[in-house]
Amino acid sequence: MSEHYEKVKVQLEEQMKAPAEDAGGEAPADPPPAPALPATAPAPALSRSARRETSRTSVHPRNRSKSRGKASSRDTNANVRQDWDKCKGLSRLGSEQMLQIKGTGKILQGKTETNGSKEEDRGENGKEKGSRVVQKRRSVTVDTSKAKTSLEALKLSIKQLKWKEFPMGRRTACDIYWHGVSFHDNENIVSGQVNKFPGMIEMLRKINLSRAVRTMQELFPEEYNFYPRSWILPDEYQLFSTQIRLLKDNDSTLKPTFIVKPDSGSQGDGIYLIRDPADLRAFSGAQVKQAVVQEYIQKPLLIDKLKFDIRLYVLVRSLEPLEIYIAKEGLSRFCTEPYQEPSQKNLSHVFMHLTNYSLNIHSGNFVHSDSCSTGSKRTFSSVLYRLASKGVDIKKVWSDIIALVIKTVIALVPELKVFYQADIPPGKPGPTCFQILGFDILLMKNLKPVLLEVNANPSMRIEHEQEVSPGVFEYVPSPVDEEVKVGVIRDTLRLMDPVQKKPHMANLLGGASEEAIAVEAGSEERVRLVESLPSLCLKQVFPKYMKQFNYLRMVERIADIFLRFLGVKGTMKLGPTGFRTFIRNCKLSNSSFTMASVDILYIDITRRWSGMVPDSREAGMGLQAFVEAFFYLAARRFKALPLREQVLSLLELCESALEGQGHVEKSRAQKQHSGINPAPPHTTALPALNSPATTGRHQDSRDQRADQTLRPSAKANVEC
């Protein structure tokens, strides 16, 4: 591919010189502007030296002329544009061939994504027409004062987009704020967009992630079997010990292996393998660190006899409505010691069992490579290509990975909505949020993907540490990291461009391509910029596949009910009064379940959860405790049904009751407006539920029931 781009570059330079020679062998005083090569070539095989040479050529954007109004310049521009169109066609052809080899995204289906916009031949009636004044579009501003390890990739992305960076911050508001750690890196933001969600760090700790997925496993065990069985320490130590002892008693030949992960650990720190609960480290004593112990995947897929995992980058663009994008390219990180199934002798061999880059970088067998398909860190597409060459169904692999990502985010959303409302209550000025997550996925020998963990702050470094002399290390550029990470950050910024807001909302309903949004939202200058960039490397998977996965959002519907009764803005815990109001308004109490029983239930569940979350600063019932109470109420009311149907039935009952109150309150307000004094209300008025999570598979049945119970006269009119 590098030879191909060198030929294109030489052809372009020769074609640019031709118009000047035809005009009399003398170049014009001001050379015509020439179109720039894409800032990041879509071909990963293009070497760094070739990119440097390309950037030094005469077609660099800084050499563009200011004298666009001259007729000779217009003619030259037209010739160059025609020649450039031909070169772009060659480039697209080369890119298509490359992408087919890579096997990523829609190329797997035999289609090539292009940037979507066709340049029009404006001629004499275009932008250069003297009577027409085109206002230059305001540059998007990005505050990078709180960015950390992603700084170099972020700077490259902003430069490619021709946006304005403010590395020291700005007194006036910026369009986008890029934080390095959390939403609270800067507490004084009241507008714009922040690249972190409130509560994301907390939710992606090992224990909270395990609890969120476990709740979904109770409702949908088959759909959430991609997460290994987990126990939370120290709370579930006795349960873990008992279950493992019974397992071994039933089958003495079983020798399971478990992996222990500290709750707040990162980069492989503190991870180790055990074969018996007695092997847990530092478990006795008062200073017990919280951790998660999981079943170890003993039969992973191997390449070159090495175990590897996949780092995929996922963009959560918004929570309301929920939008998820997956990067078409990712990283494959390899162990540096040939894999053997766990035994008592090799449990401590971290270079064999742990795929963490931060650990294997210190191995003497770690291989740095400028190639995307060799070395200890490779592109995911190179792995897919290798699997495809062996007859593996790559479409099925991608489909399973997409389903895993969507299901995991759906499990996280309920708690994230509580965090979000606590930090940015409705009606309070504040920014909108988005975030790039790092999904670590392992492929089993049967090609089933398994979720290892999700990182709230995945590393976006595009350099790696290399020993240049004994004991001397320095950071050198990493072509593989730059190929993947710069594209992810750049295209995240493109999707979050504030100019795209209105077209973006229309796209949710109309299904237009992301590239088309960028073209429709800007001026002619913007169109040219979009055409110079590669096609988006981020693929929307939700709401694109909403119909297939919306039925899983039952816990999110419970969270919507929970949020309605919090009462005080900024709080995350439900008090006893709020819980009693929930029971009363949903009409869940009766002679066998009195309000005294309600209070006992609240105290019992709240006390148990306060012990499991000792660092909680706020008293009351959190969402996870409320979900447990909701499950209890569902099982009590609908005893004959399985758990999922119990919860669904109680959800529909509560939503119907609350919607009915909303209609009553609306009718009361209309009577007040017309001068009729209604009877005093007996319950607190609440607005109707409007969350998209309530529009799932069972929405039609609820609507029909609401029509029959709440609007009988309107229903009769329709039937007549």
From TrEMBL:
Bias (Low complexity): 37-48
This protein's UniProt keywords: ATP-binding, Ligase, Nucleotide-binding
Domain of life of the native organism: Eukaryota
GO BP terms in the entry: microtubule cytoskeleton organization
Residue stretches of biased makeup (Basic residues): 59-71
Leader peptide range in chain numbering: none
Ranges of Basic and acidic residues composition bias in the record: 1-20, 116-131, 697-708
The protein's name: Tubulin tyrosine ligase-like family, member 11
